[in-house]
Every structure is written in structure tokens, then in C-alpha cells.
Amino acid sequence: MKCPFCQHEDTQVLDTRVSEEGDAVRRRRRCAKCDKRFTTYERIELSMPVIVKKNGSRTEYASDKLRGSLMLALRKRPVSAEAVDDAVAAIEESLLTSGQREVDTGFVGELVMVQLKRLDKIAYIRFASVYKNFEDLAEFQDAIAEVGNDRKPRK
């Protein structure tokens, strides 16, 4: 670690602690040349994969686009904002843990469908009809039957 004062490359760690938030390591250091002290922080750097669109173009992951798609499918449905936040977090975690540097929109779409199916069956059908590009009534009926098979029996 270079000293920020004299640029000397030999520094000594005097103290190491985990930050109050628990998301970083705080180190107090001393320069061997000028004897000045300074603090450094080590944090994990996580990056979302790049999204590859159907036409082959690439774009940065955008959380607001994902949330917008979910909100559009969930429009006028009784789903709390907290549940939407949890769904977005679950999708983002899946993207991060996939370990891939690039993912196609189909992968993201499947993750969205899993979360919508869990949140609200009607929103799932809405999203699936656009995402899977339904062309006739039979495809709608198949999707409805699929959701119906997952339904818990009423008491």
C-alpha cells in the first residue's frame, strides 16, 4: 500500500478492525519513511453481469428496469412494495451468484417469472403472455393450467 503523503510503498498495518456496518475492513497504517499514519478500507466489489439482448447488443444491468417490469405485471394487484423489493433482491442475488459475466435476457426473464409465480398468479400470466409471445388462446390456457396445478387446495 502506497503512503498517500510521500508515495513510499512500504507501510505497516498497526490495527485491523471490521467496520461498524460489517461490510468493510478498516486498517490503520503507518508509513515506514515519513512516519505518518492513515486509514484504509477494504470492501467487496460485486458487479452485476452484462445483459445480452435478443438482437445481440449488450447493456448494463439496470435495477430500475427490472422493478419497472415487475410493477407493470403487478399493476392493480394486491402485492406490497416490500414483496416487490424482496423479489428484486432475489433476482439480483441469482444474477450475482450465477458467476456469469454476461447473461441473456431469457435468463433474466425466467428469474422474473419464478418470482411473479410466487407473488401473484395473474401477474405471472400477464408477464408470461408478453415474455413468451403468446399467439393464440391455447397458449394462454396452457399457462393458466400450469398455474392452476400449483394452486393450494382451498379449505
Explain what the structure shows.
The chain folds into two domains: 11-43; 50-150. It has helices at 63-73, 81-97, 105-119, 121-131, 137-150; strands at 11-18, 24-31, 37-43, 50-52, 58-59, 102-104. α1 crosses α4 (121-131) and α4 (121-131) runs antiparallel to α5 (137-150). Strands 1-2-3 form a three-stranded antiparallel β-sheet, with no helix packed on it. It starts with 10 loop residues before the first strand and ends in a 5-residue tail after the last helix. A hairpin with a 5-residue loop joins β2 (24-31) and β3. The mean pLDDT is 86. With 155 residues, it is α+β, with helices and mostly antiparallel strands. It contains five helices and six strands. 44% of the residues lie in helices and 20% in strands.
Helix content: 40-55%
The coarse overall form would be elongated
Structural class label: alpha+beta
Low-confidence stretches: none
Largest sheet, strands/sense/barrel: 3 strands, antiparallel
Q: Kindly report the average pLDDT value.
A: 86
**If helices are DSSP runs of H or I spanning 4 or more residues, what is the number of helices?**
5
Strand content: 15-25%
Strand order of the largest sheet: 1-2-3
Order of helices and strands: EEEEEHHEHHH
The total tally of domains equals 2
- Strand runs, count: 6
